[in-house]
Amino acid sequence: MPFAALLGAMLFAVQAGHYIAFALTPFAGMLLLRLFIIQHDCGHGSFFKSKTANNWLGRSIGVLTLTPYDCWRRSHELHHASTGNLDARGFGDVDTLTVREYRAKSWLGRFGYRLYRHPIVLMGIGPAYLFLLRHRLPIGLMKDGSVYWISALATNAAAGALLITLGLIFGAYVTAIVFLPVLLTAASVGVWLFYVQHQFEDAHWDTRENWSYHESAIGGSSYLHLPAVMNWFTGNIAIHHIHHLVSRIPFYRLPTALKEHPELAEINRVGPREAVSSMWLALWDEDRRKLVSFREAKRLTV
């Protein structure tokens, strides 16, 4: 309800001037991000006791986040099942190469990977591509059953109907300049959160024969220490190591879980400074067992 009210206020505010509407964009974007976290918890079956209630609320929110719920839920399940597994990369995560894999690539392959891992691409172009284009089709799940096609196409149809209705009422231009910045704000902050949750210096990776679900859940996920207001907007998802360990804990219970197990507050704790510097980490160093930057990887060869 707060999101709908704020979005409506922004649509009306454009009539009085663009600056008023744009000033509200960060707040609306963060409310949309919180809605995505609720959708995320529905996918884990943790928001309601009822599976049906979880699924239909998740699908409904997916119309606002432009995220097909059933497709995303399956991809996210695979992500949880393979976090930190070097032999099971590629499902719902940020593509990460080892130092040896990077060195084995051609110059063009290395250039493409460096471009992909640049913060501007990951936090700017990437979120726009993911939420505006990639989610329109069940990419990665096209051969896995009709449910994923139905999820993607039904979400497209419902979101299209909503945006067309707003366009008929407020005009296509007004709808676009209000909704797109809000969506991209939520998408960029969400992708940044997801990045920091698994891409930090002391992250944990192993080959399949040495991989352990519980060890990777704790070792391969961070505890991003955020201000209280940011924890509210982001649904406490920054307490990510506990979430990966027991994904059925609803987001509003994660602070309690951390309080009851204070020793976990010091494991993989990432502050604002580390969160910014982690943006330049791009390769898993198999020998030192840590994420390193391209510069560090080059220095290791000298």
Query: Biggest sheet, open or closed, and with what strands and sense?
Result: 3 strands, mixed
Shape: globular
Counting DSSP H or I runs of 4 or more residues, the number of helices is: 15
Low-confidence stretches: none
Percentage of residues in strands: under 5%
Give the neighbour order of strands across the main sheet: 1-4-5
Report the strand count.
5
Give the termini distance in whole angstroms: 58 Å
Description:
The chain is mainly alpha-helical and 302 residues long. Helices cover 63% and strands 5% of the residues. It is built from 15 helices and five strands. Strands 1-4-5 form a three-stranded mixed β-sheet. A hairpin with a 4-residue loop joins strand 4 (281-285) and strand 5. Helix 2 runs antiparallel to helix 3 (51-65) and helix 2 (18-43) crosses helix 9 (172-198). The chain is globular and about 60 Å long. The mean pLDDT is 92.
